[in-house]
Amino acid sequence: MLSVWEAIEKRRSIRQFTPDEVPDEMIEQLLEAARLAPSAGNRQPWSFLVVKDMEVRKELRRICWNQPLIEQAPVVIVCFGDLDRYFNVSRSANKYLKYYGSSPPSPVQQKITFSMANAFIAIEHMVLMATALGLGTCWVGGFDDATEFQTLFNLADNLVPVAVLPVGYPAGEIPPPRPRRELDDILLKPGADSPEN
Ligand SMILES: Cc1cc2nc3c(=O)[nH]c(=O)nc-3n(C[C@H](O)[C@H](O)[C@H](O)COP(=O)(O)O)c2cc1C
After folding, report:
1. Tens-place pLDDT, residues 50-66
2. How many CA atoms lie within 13 A of 158 on its CB side?
3. SS3 of 108, please?
């Protein structure tokens, strides 16, 4: 298995998969990596659905802007932020209002933002674990309507879809790294970047 650093460096968004089945133990390991992710107040506001059925994958493809990788991957993990799990144990949403200036998001928007931010961490754990196991994945956030997922899977509306993760063995060449900003470009230098200078 790859080290954390190797997985970070080798990970690419994989959009083509072989038809080979992914062993259940590997899927379990991905979910275990998600389960161990950190979260604010340890609320763990996430839930996952593992989809293998071809008809359901076709339907997910339709919901996800008709992106073919969803149907092609043998396994698709649908990742949800869980609003109830985030806020039922929260003291109050009001403590966050100060960060939003004069037009704060509505309480519902806040719930969604924070539960999704937490779920993102668990999802990236799965992505890196998949890379370490020799599997390919690609974050898919290209969908519009949360209710389509809720209808498809008969879910309550506290579950907000955050990302869809196709998983399989990469087909063809592994893509070269996509460009990234240089460190100098993302590392702020206090003082040097202030408007006075
Ligand atoms: C939140 C999020 C949503 C994304 N949604 C899509 C998507 O809908 N379809 C897709 O093909 N790639 C999607 N991507 C993958 C990005 O295009 C990709 O990460 C980026 O171009 C950098 O390439 P790399 O992942 O190979 O380093 C998404 C990535 C993230 C983090």
Report:
1. 999 999 999 999 999 99
2. 10
3. helix
Phi, psi of 3, deg, nearest 5 = -75, 170
d(CA 70, CA 76) in angstroms, rounded, equals: 7
What is the crossing angle of helices 24-35 and 107-132, to 10°? 130
Any idea which residue has 């072989």 for tokens?
18
Atom of ligand 1 nearest to the CA of 142: 8
Bridge pairing between strands 75-82 and 159-168: antiparallel
Please give the Cα distance from 160 to 146 (Å, whole number): 6
Out of 11, 125, 138, mutate this one to test ligand 1's pocket (max ligand atoms within 8 Å of CB): namely 138
Per-residue pLDDT of 80-111, as tens digits, reads 998 888 776 444 444 434 444 556 667 767 76
Nearest CA to ligand 1 atom 17: 13
Whether 101 and 134 have beta carbons less than 8 Å apart is answered as no
Name the residue among 93, 112, 110 with its Cα closest to residue 157.
112
The reported pTM is 0.90
List the domains of the chain with CATH numbers. 4-186 (3.40.109.10)
Tokens for 7? 């997985």
Dig out the tokens for 82 from the structure.
């869980």
